[in-house]
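Input (Aqp10):
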Amino acid sequence: MTLVKNIVKRMKVKNELARQIMGELLGTFVLLLFGCAAAAQVKTSRETKGQFLSVNMAFSVGVMSAMYLSRAVSGAHLNPAVSLSFCVLGDLAWIKLLPYSLAQIFGAYLASGLVYLIYHDAIMEFSGGILTVFGPNETASIFATYPTDVVSVQTNFLD
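Output:
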């Protein structure tokens, strides 16, 4: 038992900012992993293995899990816009904005990359091997949201 305690003690990250950055990275990773995996499942199955509500519920469980994981460590901002708003309000030091944002972006990319690896075969089968943003077999919406063609730039900006 002493060996395990020694190993755990040695592995503990003592730098507070490093712990906070790892918390944001892990939290954002978990959030996007849940959400994007559900989106990939629904999209590539042509809604036979889930529906739009499944994606919404997966994202909500992802947010909850990410909050539980990282709130005590970093505040669970999970988004650069949230971190920016905390800086503006004075609840987060401006010096932490860039490290938090980079960790959140990196966590999102890691989660998206993992979802892409897991669903690669399904995505390729669904899209016919041609990855597109628009059209009936587009797969970009698994990883991002896009405005509709009929909505104006001004409305999209406000949205």
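Residues 85 and 91 are 9 Å apart (CA to CA).
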